[in-house]
Input
Amino acid sequence: MRVIYILWLREVKKYLRSRTQVVASLGSPLMYLCVLGFGLGPVFQKAGEGSYLQFMAPGVIGMTVLFTSMFSGIALLWDRQFGFLKETLVAPVPRLWIMMGRTLGGATVAMLQGLLIFVFCLVAGFRPVGLLVLPLAVSIMALIAVVFAALGTVIGSSLKDMQGFQLVMNFLVMPIFFLSGALYPLTNLPKPLAVLTRVDPLTYGVDGVRAALTGVTHFGIPLDVAVLIAVAMVLMSAGAWRFSRIEI
Amino acid sequence: MIRVQNLVKRFGDLTAVDDISFEVRRGEVFAFLGPNGAGKTTTIKMLTTLLKPTSGVLELDGLDPAVERDEVRKRFGVVFQDPSLDQDLTAWENMEIHGVLYGVPRQERRERAEALLKLFELWERRGALVKTFSGGMRRRLEIARGLLHTPKVLFLDEPTLGLDPQSRNQMWTHVKRLNESDQVTVFLTTHYMDEADRVADRIAVIDHGRIVAIGSSRELKERTNTESLEDAFLALTGTTIRDESASAAEGMRQIARMWRR
Ligand SMILES: Nc1ncnc2c1ncn2[C@@H]1O[C@H](COP(=O)(O)OP(=O)(O)OP(=O)(O)O)[C@@H](O)[C@H]1O
Ligand SMILES: [Mg+2]
Output
């Protein structure tokens, strides 16, 4: 337990110390929030869907959690490059613990980042249905964070160097985001798109956060949570397996 | 304590370690000498569970590092040739994490970390981020961290690389003391022949992945009819520089890798 804790603490400490990184990673979610939120607002309103900001804010929160948690998993590659990974890999503790500490640390950081964006959403004019729903929304954010931190770990353990990183960003992270229903409603989508959105785990995450915060939902919270937990378990196992096979 | 038999490691078509066999006795200080690219680090990586051998038998304290990895990891400590510190943490935090990973009890961890940081003159800088350290300071921290727990076997892969004579002296004195008082078996590599001469009970000379000679410093000198260990080393491994062939091979490998993509 102490091992998991200290590796978790390491991630959180590093996050709290790197102010520039915090600010930098807030950039793109804020841009989406402001530019799309206010830019597409009138069109959305005209289509009779209500406030676009209200609709997309949970999506932007989901996006922040996605990016940050994936990134923390892939930061494994930095540790490989700068050598610290070796130090943990020869330690006399099961690699499962090491992987758990790292992944949970990354997930925590992603959640903190998501909360920060949530505050910005409030400032921008987003209004959740009440304060009581907050714990539920945060729990769902935590699930999203674990799912993608684990996915990041799977990828980080499988790549050898930084060259694959751009590939992962463009062909995995961005599609996960755009197919998640973060930016558009899931109703009346063309068939292929509808199918793709349903295999994207973030879809359920965003739907869950949206349901908790605004009461608008497509699948319902029970299904969202069930899917997220199942995917988290699969990806954590896959991460543990990949991590245990790392060679340097 | 360590037994290696017919060990082979291939990376693609490069044979880094080519059928080597040797034994290290309990409580012994054993030096592995060899030109660049000889296969020293690769051997250490296999013994420390970081790499799986292509073939051959490995044994550390009666256990197989390729199979009983968790058990083997409880028995050794290692200072790697390349950096393995977390640069975004402080010196103290790096020590703390190491202590926790190796299950050193809190009180003991603090005391030993303090003693070691003082020994290597890093105590005043314990709260500074490692990325603000000079190369030699990082190396010292790396060594201090490696000595935080008392393992049965201590692997030191070119520990004194880039260190000033004072620090080198400190380190070897400390290692020698550990070896004598706690019966720690030491497996080291170095390119400084005087160090090997001073601390090692036995020396293996490895070249092109093969062991060319093994014995005490005196035996090696006698066998090659030379006065110093340095001369014995040169007599055994020749005077050509190895980097070139190694880097040419590395270049080819990189091209091959690019094409495979
Ligand atoms: N991961 C790897 N992939 C491919 N080749 C490798 C890898 N690691 C080592 N090698 C090759 O194996 C050979 C032995 O390398 P090794 O690092 O064991 O040498 P060394 O004896 O430690 O040398 P040095 O004194 O320079 O540290 C070298 O030719 C090196 O290029
Ligand atoms: Mg080496």
The radius of gyration of chain A is 18 Å. Chain A touches chain B through 25 residues (CB under 8 Å). Chain A has a mean pLDDT of 91. Residues 8 and 104 of chain A are 6 Å apart (CA to CA).
